[in-house]
């Protein structure tokens, strides 16, 4: 801050850095031999080099390791040399007794400022390690006498800790055990924190193991706070840049009782700010990825410590904000967000500690608004979010911050897409609305459409590649879900041709994934490097820590593959995430257009290739898609087995997604087994999951009432079912959910069919078919055709031929893509058509009828759809009876009886499945 | 009066014993006095029959050592003093040694803070003596060979180490045995951040407790209670400058500026070289725009001691009043250099930056104030104001809400919030009306709220409410004998409103009052009058 500005002390020397210097001296002695003295082979030599490199760059925490830890790591690296090296190290360090010794200390000695003496070490001064040494030299030469005294004491502590090990002051802590909740400057608390830290550090580490694998800062395409960071520290710190402002925190204390984690009690030192930053951004990614499963309190205590040690590192507040946001702590998130932006003015990156009075700029508070908007959105306050984002648009226009504007527009469109078609007109109609130019007569979707195009254009012109890609994705999603009509032709005269455009969806998806070709120049050198080094160092720890990780389940097992993933050239995590979500969009588009295999393949691709780099909620979505697929195509047993796995995997995260699919599958299952009460219960629970705000969560709400209608239909309460379906139709119409309407129409046709009013049903079926045609919903169209055939058939046997023709026309889609239920229904209808056809005689070609019936009965048994299965067996029995094959007839009849009793007494069935609830 | 000196010392605790004679001896004298002091029928417990400090220091050698150490101590050679006393076991010697060690540690800490400060403002320098002091004092306490002063040091050390609960009980023990150690009381007060913590203390009844409670109430923003206590104490200690200053403080917080000014004038007559609390006086003078008085005060204070944060603050205020904001910022910065946690300087500096339109610096300054004391409603208000200036009214609302929450009885805050709601960007008039209503209830001095309420209701087409508030506003303006455009506007609206409501008599009254003014309103009033007469004729001739 301007008020108290101090000369930025650059890179300072700590005992840890001194030990690195000692090791470097060992690594590169002035001798001319290719393999210097203690090393046995080139690879041996190189290994130490890599180790040193990693030590200077790793960002695995906020504190520098203690001597003990360093020696432990050395043990892993140096193998046989371990003893020699650690002895050498401790000897060199403990030989320092007076300030003068430091001046005569190997590399640091020599009065010449920042020049490396060739007779001390042999190293390219521009290599990373060489640069490190030069920085140490420079820092040492700039040190005041006080600084040298401090360094000396610190070295003493550093060595003593590793020798004497444990506290001389235990007594003093015995009576301090009272733990005061007040979080102010309290050492007692700090100790408690340490305790917590120790306890939780295990699972923390565990989770970090997972995290370390994503070697870059991944940004969820949806999560703009992260994206914003890109803009807020847009000048990517290059190495040279960091040299200037890297900084260390020498601890000050003589008290040797606390080792590593006693930040405030000294003896420990923060890493360079570059490393701390790397650590923080890694954690930010982890929080976003793991959501609420991220250990809240453990991380909070680390942050608290960090804040005490570096009060001017405002990034900490941001991390605290993220942490509380993902644990749904509204006040905490709000408080920390405001604090972060008050301090940093949106211009942070530690790179900019220079007092704001120096840079006359206004500060970029619009980013604060953007973040606040995202926060409200995340916590489910769409109205506030919209209000805040509108303000963000205004402010960024006012200060012509185009980048922020682009992100804000994207955020708004995201918001509109998510909350869908809520009654936001009150806000949207207001004069300051960004799309006010078009007038308020547009529906929300049209506004969304305009907004998406606008932000796409802006993002393209600003070359924000990730944003462009994610907007493309967003547009693709929009194209899937919404029916377009020409924007400018309204009114009665305009042709009301509603269409969906699968081609454009795929065009968008393609341009989104095109991003992968361009990530090269954008990949962030900083974190990639840091993460690689971190991973490397961690792999050293592994053998010793293997006990902790032994119980890791198999889903995490790929953390062994860190070497593969931590390739320095690997794709940035954010890009991977975007790509992954494009596969998810693909999957849901195919789901919609009716190609089951393609949908499944895309979901599988996501689950196998991108699950590690994407957020858990996305992964949960993919899993839920796969589970649903299993339920429809393989029967419920498999689905439930898969669900158990998924539940274990997503134990506490994104519960709702898995819960949703569970309820859906359970509902289907109960419906098929005829367990209507339970079905209704599941359906109600599903409805409860939706938000109570009108217009929000429409997807879920329509789904719930659709299922409600189906349950009623199964209970033969036709009029109620029809009433529900009608009101659903109205809702869908009101909120412009045309695609959903096709399904509702089909349901209505079904209701009329079941209630015996075939004549009334036919128009609905036809309407549905025409809807499907224009929306490219192939599978739905096929099943509508099937219903139409059934309707015709029920009008009388003279329509059997027509029905059969209809049925056969859609057979390829039905059999190729339809689920078990649809297929068997088609088979049964086919058989019925043949049987009803007066010109068809069973005795001539029995297989024509028997074959489909057999197929149907097999699949229905798999599905446990008792009602339909009973029908199939009934028909079979009749046919066998006609043919005079009595044994088969008896068999079919007994099967029929089994299914019909099961259907009528659903409670008798095994309740194991329902025990899942 | 002996009492006034001790409590009035507000200086950091470690300077206390250096100034003049040690207070170890003084309280004893007072102890004798104090038995006579509470004469006004106050039922205080009698002075504790604790042995006077002299009673346990009879050993002549001990006394020599003690005197040597004391001299070193007075020369600020703390370690030397402690070293001299290393083998002494007298209670007084032990206390002096511990205190000297503590101060030596503090001194080293301050030095290290500067030596080790990095660009990210690391400040984890610690008093290294704490650990050993704590160990020693806790053993002494266990053995029961500790005196109240030792307990005080122990409490101090515990507080520094963050063990607040134990610190609290130790300090309570100390003040219960020996109530005249104001340093112990003020440490105790710093540990009572909530009213619950305060009430849970188990303190013997003694008049020092009243001083303590009054001061604690003030910290907890229970200004009326605090004022009552001080006024009660003033009955006993009639000539205490300290009490007078504290009363001024309470009055200031209740925004009774007139009284504050009177009190400070008297205070300065009695205690002309006083610097403490004078920044508050300067705030009052600033608010009343007394240029010369403020400059006089600044001059006087600067001659007394220019390196006190208060002095710098006063000069800063003066420059601010003169409109020289850069200079003013410079002095506030100096104040902050002297005391980094000087709350009001941060806030005032924020105000200056706002004046200079340097909003981001202002935001930063305010935020620091808020982080030092989250109850500083002025800083929250300033934050809101800064963001509103940047055209972010919705974002600003968060801060206004905070400030209003902390100070719900301040109409200015409510008005600021209402204006925020009223901005064209937000245009949330309903909410604005709610805020204005609160402002009216809080005795809005500038009378903005009533007028705005009327206008907003008018804008929303709620004419009845609008008329109600215009009438109230009119009454108020009449009562305060104010004139101006608001008056004309109110009269105009009321005249038209009454006419449409067919209250012709009332409308006529308003119109005739309007005729007193020049300008277009006069003409409108005339035509209104004509219209009224016509309408009245119609009503008379053709009764409904």
Automatic annotation (TrEMBL), chain A:
GO terms for cellular component: anaphase-promoting complex. It holds the Pfam family ANAPC5. The keyword Cell division applies. Residues 317-416 form the Anaphase-promoting complex subunit domain. GO terms for biological process: anaphase-promoting complex-dependent catabolic process; cell division; positive regulation of mitotic metaphase/anaphase transition; protein K11-linked ubiquitination. InterPro entries: Apc5 (IPR037679), Apc5_dom (IPR026000), TPR-like_helical_dom_sf (IPR011990), TPR_rpt (IPR019734). Keywords: Cell cycle, Cell division, Mitosis, Ubl conjugation pathway. Component of the anaphase promoting complex/cyclosome (APC/C), a cell cycle-regulated E3 ubiquitin ligase that controls progression through mitosis and the G1 phase of the cell cycle. The APC/C complex acts by mediating ubiquitination and subsequent degradation of target proteins: it mainly mediates the formation of 'Lys-11'-linked polyubiquitin chains and, to a lower extent, the formation of 'Lys-48'- and 'Lys-63'-linked polyubiquitin chains. The APC/C complex catalyzes assembly of branched 'Lys-11'-/'Lys-48'-linked branched ubiquitin chains on target proteins. Belongs to the APC5 family. This is Anaphase-promoting complex subunit 5. It comes from Sesamum indicum (Oriental sesame). The gene is LOC105178725.
Automatic annotation (TrEMBL), chain B:
Residues 34-48 have a biased composition (Polar residues). TPR repeats lie at residues 309-342, 343-376, 377-410. Transmembrane segments: none annotated. Residues 1-48 are annotated as: Disordered. Pfam families: ANAPC8, TPR_11, TPR_8. SUPFAM superfamilies: TPR-like. Keywords: Cell cycle, Cell division, Mitosis, Repeat, TPR repeat, Ubl conjugation pathway. One of its GO terms (biological process) is protein ubiquitination. InterPro entries: APC8 (IPR007192), TPR-like_helical_dom_sf (IPR011990), TPR_rpt (IPR019734). Residues 50-248 form the Cdc23 domain. GO terms for cellular component: anaphase-promoting complex. This is Anaphase-promoting complex subunit 8 isoform X2. It comes from Sesamum indicum (Oriental sesame). The lineage of its organism: Eukaryota, Viridiplantae, Streptophyta, Embryophyta, Tracheophyta.
